[in-house]
Amino acid sequence: MQVKAVEAAKPVQAEEQTLYEIRRKIYPRAVSGHFASARWAMVLLTQLIFYGLPWLSWNDRQAVLFDLASRKFYIFGLVFWPQDIVYLTVILILAAYSLFLFTAVAGRLWCGYACPQTVYTEIFLWIERRVEGERLARMKLDKAPLSAAKVGRKVLKHGLWIALALWTGFTFVGYFTPIQTLLADVFALGTGPWETFWMLFYGFATYGNAGWMREQVCKYMCPYARFQGVMFDPDTLVITYDKDRGEPRGARSKSADPVKQGLGACVDCGICVQVCPTGIDIRNGLQYECIGCAACIDGCNQVMDKMGYDRGLIRYATENAVKQHLDRGGMFRRVLRPRVLLYTGILLAVTIAAIVTLAHRVPVKVDVIRDRVPMAAGSGDGRVENVYRLQVMNTDETPRRFTITVAGMPGLTLDSRENPVELGGARSRMIPVRVNAVPSAGVHGSQSIEFTVKAETIGGAPDPAPLVIVETARFVVP
After folding, report:
1. What's the CA gap between 163 and 149, in Å, rounded?
2. Mean pLDDT of 463-467
3. Domains in the chain with CATH codes
4. What pLDDT does residue 213 have?
C-alpha cells in the first residue's frame, strides 16, 4: 500500500507528439538512362515553348497574347473574345480527360514529366549540381562549418536561382502585356503596379517551390497525389518493384552466385532511394509520394548492368501483370481496357468538334440592344421611333465594311450617322441607330423586326460572298 501511494504521488510525464513529420532534406542523386533522357526532353520542350512563344510575331503583333485590358486573346491567327468562353470550357474538358486517360494508362505521367513543379525542380537541381557538386559533395558542404568558400557557393547558387525565377516571372507577365514593351519598361523602371506584383509573385513562387519546398509541394500541397488512387486500377502501368525476383535482398560480390547464397537480384545498394526526388523506397510498394518519374528504374538498371543481371527489377508494370506473371504483350493488351477506350473516344470527339467549330466560326458578331427609356417616341406626322444600339464585332484580323438594313414592318426606315461603318481587324464598335415606322391601323404593342448586317472585306481580296448576319429585335408601337 505504501509503495502504491508513493507511485501515485509521482508526477505524470506528459507525452508530446508532433502533428507533422519534420522535413528531412533530400539530396537526389543524378542518374542517366532512357527515362532521364525523356524527362530532360520534356524540360527542353516545355521551356522552349514557355520562354519562346511570347517573342514570336504574327500579323505585326505578338503571336500569343492574352490582352485582358482589351478583353481579347490572340493565339497566332485566332482571336478570342469574351463571347468565345465556350472554347475555354472545351480546353478544360480536354485537359481533364487527358489527365484521366494518362493516369488510367500509366499513372502519374503528368507529374513525372510535364508538371511545372517537376520541370523547374529538375532545372534548379541541375544548377545546384553545377555549383555545389554531386550528392555526397552537397551533403558534405551543408554539414561543413561556415566559410568563405561555402558562402560563395551558396550565394552563387541562390543568385542563379533568383535570376531564373525572375526571368520566369517576367515571361509569365509577357503573355498578358506585350513582352517587348514590358522589357523596355523593366529597363526604364516603368512597369505598372500589377505587372511588378505579378513578376515578383510568380518569380517568388518559382524560387520557393522549386528551390526550397520541392518534394513538399508534391507530397502535401498538390491534391492530385491524394486522389490519384481512385483513378488507378490493377491494369494501370505503375513503377513496380518485383519482389519475387528481388527478395531476399542483400549485398554480394559481382562474381558471387546469388542462388547459392539464397539471395534475390536486389543487392540492397539503395540507389533507387538516392535518386528518388521525393525520397521514398519503391521497394516498400507504390506510395502516394511517388511522382512516376522513373528515376529509380534508370538507377536500378545501371546496377543490374554492372552486376550482369537482367534489367527490369524495378520497371513499369501493372498489378495484374506482376501477380499473374504476364509477359509484355499480355500486359499491354490489358492496358487497352474499356475505360481507356472510353476516355480516348471522348477526347477524340471533343477535339474533332472543337476543330470543326473553329473552322466554321463566323468572324462577325452582332448584338442588338434596344434603349428602354423611352420605350418608343412618336412624332407629329404619326411615325413611331425606337432607338437601338448595335454592337458590331469584327472578330478576326481582316478589315471589313458593315452595312446595316432593317425590315419586318411596312415603311421601316433606319437613321444612323454611321452606316456603312468600317472596322479594322479585331475591333468592335457600338453603333446607335433610330428606326422609324408608320404603324398600320390596329397595330399596337411589341412587333418583331430584323436587322441585317452585311460584312464585306476591304483593303484586300474581297470575300467570294459577303457575310450576312441577321438579328431579331422588338419594335414597340404605343
Report:
1. 21
2. 73
3. 26-361 (no CATH), 364-477 (2.60.40.10)
4. 92
Alpha carbon distance 105, 337 (integer Å): 9
C-alpha gyration radius of the chain: 33
Cis peptide before 464 (omega within 30 of 0): no
C-alpha cell at 24: 528531412
> In the Cβ-directed half-sphere of 428, how many Cα atoms lie within 13 Å?
20
Give 75's strand partners.
64, 78
How confident is the model over 236-288, as pLDDT tens digits? 999 999 999 999 999 999 988 998 999 999 999 999 999 999 999 999 988 88
Residue 408, pLDDT > 90, answer no
Q: Give residue 85's pLDDT.
A: 86
CA gap 202, 208 in Å, rounded: 10
DSSP characters over 17-82: --SSPPP----PPP--SHHHHHHHHHHHHHHHHHHHGGG-EETTEESEEEETTTTEEEETTEEE-G
Q: Which residues contact 397 (CB under 8 A, 6 or more apart)?
A: 59, 77, 79, 425, 426
**What are the pLDDT digits (tens) for 10-56?**
555 555 555 556 678 899 999 999 999 999 999 999 999 999 999 99
b/e string for 21-48 if b means 16 or more Cβ within 10 A? eeeeebbbbebebebbeebbebbeebbe
Residue with cell 505587372: 195
